[in-house]
C-alpha cells in the first residue's frame, strides 16, 4: 500500500490519486491473473508428468520438445477453440456464472498471498481469514454449477461439495488457530516473520511452526488433510468422482468453461500449498538462519509450495478415494476434536514452555 | 424450470422392473430420484445400464438393463459351420478370448468325440491361463479405477501388455485370438515362446506383490470394500453365480479341480476361496482378492505346464468339411469370470441347430439387483466393479 | 474326482468329458415318482435328456432340488429350442454337493408356448427364463417379471425361432427402432 | 483518496446490495433467491471493508456465505429440487397488512436513523487491524453476551442432534 503514494508522488503527480489507485489495482490484477494461469499451466503439466512417472510411463513427450512442456498450452488452446455447449435444459444464467465464480474465488485468494517480504498484492491484516473466506465463494460456485447443469450426477456433485465444504471448513480453520495464537496476528507476512526464530532463539528450520511443538505438528498434518478435502483432491475428490458421478459438477461443461474449472482446481491447489508453507513451514525462510540464506525469498517460497503440490499429486496417484460417510466421519470424529485439543494443547505449551 | 427429481413420480416402477414397489416417504419430505447409471457411465464397464432409485446418496434399488451390445451370437451360431464359429466366441467375453475359444472347442470335441493331442492340451492350458491372468489384471486395474486409485490401473495394464505380446507372437491377435481351434490349436508355439513366458512369469509375481501393496492392502481400499455388498454362499449358488464370485462367497468350487477337463489334474495348485478376512464373507474385498490370489495360482499352473510340454502334433485331424454326428451336448469350462457353458444341438449337418451360450457374467449380474438395496452410490460402484462384468458376454 | 484322477488310472480316450451326467439314472427315479408326467429318456449322445410334461415341471424340479439323492441346487442353464413343430425348453440342473447334471426337456406347442416358471425354485431361473422368453417367445407362467431382456421392449417377434424373418431396414425405421 | 472514488465505491456496493436483495425477494425460484443472496453478502462485505472493518467483513463472508448460504442451498436442493415457489395469491387482506407492516418498520428505522447519535470517526490509517480491538472487547466488556450467545448456540446444536437422532430412529 505504500507503493501507491510513492508512485503517485514520484511519477504520476499530474494524475488524480484515485486514477493511480485504480490503475495500480488493474495492473496488479492483470499480473495476478497471468500468474494464476501460469501456475495452472505448470501444475497441470507437472501433474501429468508426476502421474506418468509414478505409473511407469512417460506422459506428454512431444509437444514443445523437452518432455512435452507445451502440452498444457496446446490443451488450453484446444479448450478455447472447442464448441461451447450449454445443455438445453440447463439454467443458462447460473450455468454461465458458475465457472466465473469458481475461478473468481480461487483468483481472489491470490491477492493476499505474500511471495516475499514485500511481494504481495494486498498486504491484508487478516490474510489467513481472507483466504479461508474466498474458498467459500468457490464452494458456492461449485454448488451453482451442479445445480445449473440440470444433470442428476452434477447435482450430486454439488450436494457433495456443500456437505464436504461445510464440514471441512471447520477443521481447516481450527487447525490454523494454534499458529495464529503463536503469531498473534492474522497477517500472513507477520506470521512468516514470526517464524524467523523459534524457541531458544534458534533460527531456520526450528523457527517454523511445524517444529515448534508437537501440537503444531499434529495441527499441520490435520490442516493438510483438510486442505486436500477443501480443494477436492484425491482421496477426497468426491464432488467430481469420475467413477461414481461421471465428472460431478462439471459433467456438462465443455471448452473454455470447463477450462475455468480446471484452472480453478490447480489455482486452489497452489493456494492450499501456499497456506501450508506460509503458516507452518516458514514461508520464505530457508532451512537455515535468514542471515545465510542465498536463494531469493520468492524462490524459497515457491520451492516449498512446489514440494507441497508434489505431495498432493503423490497422494492423488497413490490412494483410492474415501466414501462420503467415511469422509464425514473423518472430519467430525477425528479432525475437529483434534483441532480443539490442539488449541488447548498449544495454549498450555505456550504458557508453560515459552512463557507467553 | 422443473426440479431434477420430479419425473420420478410419474413412472410405473413395476414396469421398469423394480421389486420394491411401495414408495417410501423420505424424511426430508422430498422425492426419490430416478437416475440412469449407464449405458455410458464410466464405471459400468461397457454398456450396462442401471436404473437407480435413490434417496439422496442411498440407493433403494437398482435395476439392470442389458442388450446394448446384443450381436445375435446365438443366431449366428446357427448359421455358420462349427469351426467358423470360433472367432465369434472371441467376442463373447472379449477379455478372455482364449478361454472362450477353448470352451467352444471342447464342446465340439465332446460332441464329435475328437481326441486332442497332448501337446495341444499343454499349449491350451498355458495360453488360457495367461489369458486368465490378463483378464484378472484388467479387473484389478479397473476396480482400482472405480474406487479412485488410478495408478494400479496402468501398472496392471503394463503387465497385461506383456501377456498380449506373448499371445500375439503365437496367435497374431492381441484381443481376439481365434487360436484354440477344434481339435487343437491353430499353430505350434514359436521357439521363443517358452522362454518369453518364463521370463514374464518370473518377474510377474513381484509385480503382483507390488500391486497388492499399493491397492489390495491399502487401508482406504479395505475400508471401501470390506463389508460392502456381501453375497452369501446359498444365494450365490441359487442365483447361478460361478467362478470368482462363487469362490469369494466361501464355496470351494473350481471346475479345473473339481471337474478337471483337459489336463488340469496334472498340476499342483490351490483353489482360492474367500475367507472374509477383512469383513464379512463374500464382500467385495473377497471378490477382488480371490482374483488377485488366482493370478498367483495361474502362474503356478503356467510354470508347470511349460515344464511339461511334450513333443508331438499340435492338432488332431479334423476333416475340412467337418460334420459332427447328430446329438446334443453341454459343456462348461472355468473362465476368468465363471463357468462358460455351450449347449450345442447338432443334426449331423455342417451347422449346429442350436448354440446356446451360457455366459457367466449374465448369471452373475442377476444378483446385482438384490445386492443393491439400501446402499450408497459409492458402494454400489464398488459392488458392480467387483462383479467384473463384460457386457459382450451378458448381451451376446 | 480329484482324488480318483490322482490315483493314477489312465483316463478314457475321449477327454474333455469330466462332467457327470446322471440323466439316465434319474429317469427311472422320476418315472416312479411322477409316472406319466415323465415322458421319455432321449437317446441323443453324448448327453441325454428326460422329456417331461410342462405342467409337472415345477414339482419335478422341486423334487430334484430337495431330494437328498439329487440335491440339484443350481439351475445351470435354461434354453429354448426350436424343433419345427414344437418349441422346447431345456433345463440343465446341476448339483454342487453331488457333482452331477440332470437334463430336463419339456415341449410346448408353437402357438401357445406356456411353461410354468421355476423362478421360485431357483432365482437364477428369473433371468434365464426372461432370455428364453425374449428370444423364443415362450411364456413362463407365474414369472415375477417377464419382460424382454436383451432386445428392446418394442421389438416384434422372437429371433431365435427358425421361422423368424429379419425385418427390413424400412420396416425397422417404420417402427422407430 | 479522491472524494468521487469513495462515492463510486459506496454507490456501486449499494447498488449491488439492493439489486441482489430485490432479486432475492422477488425471484421465482428458491435457488435463484439463494444465489442472489450471495451477491448481497458480497456487497455487505464490501461495505464493511470500505468502513475499515476488515475482520467483520471477512467474518461476514465466512459465516454467511461459507456456512449459512451453503447450508441453505443444500437444503433447497434436497427438498423439492428447488422448483417453483408457491406464490401466495395477492388477496385484498394481504396488501393492506403488508403495507402496514412495512410502514411500521420504516417508521421505526427512520426514527433510529435520525435520532441515534452516530459516533463518526475518521480513520487515520486504513491498515489498522481491528481484530485485536474486537478480541479484547469480546473478552472484557462483552464477555457476558458473548458467553450467553455461545451457550445458546450450543443448545441449538445439541437440540439439532437430538432431533436428527430421533428422526433416524423412527425411520428404522
Describe it for me?
- The complex is a heterotetramer of chains A (356), B (396), C (177) and D (172).
- Chain A has helices spanning 3-10, 17-54, 71-81, 92-109, 127-148, 152-183, 188-193, 214-230, 255-280, 297-316, 324-353.
- Chain A folds into two domains: 1-81, no CATH class; 85-353, no CATH class.
- Chain A is mostly helical.
- Helices cover 64% and strands 0% of the residues of chain A.
- Chain B has 396 residues and is α+β, with helices and mostly antiparallel strands.
- Chain B has helices at residues 73-77, 86-90, 97-112, 118-146, 151-171, 193-216, 219-225, 233-238, 244-248, 255-258, 284-307, 360-365, 368-371, 377-386, 391-395, and strands spanning 33-37, 49-55, 58-65, 180-181, 184-185, 327-335, 338-346, 352-358, 375-376.
- A four-stranded antiparallel sheet of chain B has the order 1-2-3-9.
- In chain B, α4 (118-146) packs antiparallel against α5.
- Chain B starts with 32 loop residues before the first strand and ends with a helix.
- Mean pLDDT of chain B is 85; it is low at 1-8.
- Chain C has 177 residues and is an alpha/beta fold.
- A five-stranded mixed sheet of chain C has the order 1-2-5-4-3, covered by helices on one side. A two-stranded parallel ribbon of chain C has the order 6-7.
- The longest helix of chain C is centred in the N-terminal third of the chain and has 12 residues, at 23-34.
- Chain D is mainly α and 172 residues long.
- Helix content of chain D is 76%, strand content 0%.
- Chain D has six helices and no strands.
- The longest helix of chain D is centred in the last third of the chain and has 29 residues, at 143-171.
- Chain D is globular and about 60 Å long.
- Mean pLDDT of chain D is 79; it is low at 81-86.
- Chains B and C meet through α3, α8, β6, β7 and β8 of B and α1, β3 and α4 of C.
**What is the N-to-C succession of helices and strands of chain D?**
HHHHHH
Mean pLDDT level of chain D: 79
Distance N terminus to C terminus of chain C?
Answer: 51 Å
In angstroms, what is the radius of gyration of chain D? 21 Å
The tally of strands of chain C reads: 7
Q: State the helical fraction of chain D.
A: over 70%
* β-sheet strand percentage of chain D: under 5%
Q: At the fourth CATH level, what is the homologous superfamily of the largest domain in chain D? A: NADH-ubiquinone/plastoquinone oxidoreductase chain 6, subunit NuoJ
Side-by-side strand order of the widest sheet of chain C: 1-2-5-4-3
**Number of domain modules of chain D:** 2
Quaternary organization: heterotetramer
User: What does the average pLDDT of chain C come to?
Assistant: 81
Classify the secondary structure makeup of chain C into a structural class. Answer: alpha/beta
Q: Specify the number of helices of chain D.
A: 6
Task: Provide the structure class of chain D.
Answer: mainly alpha
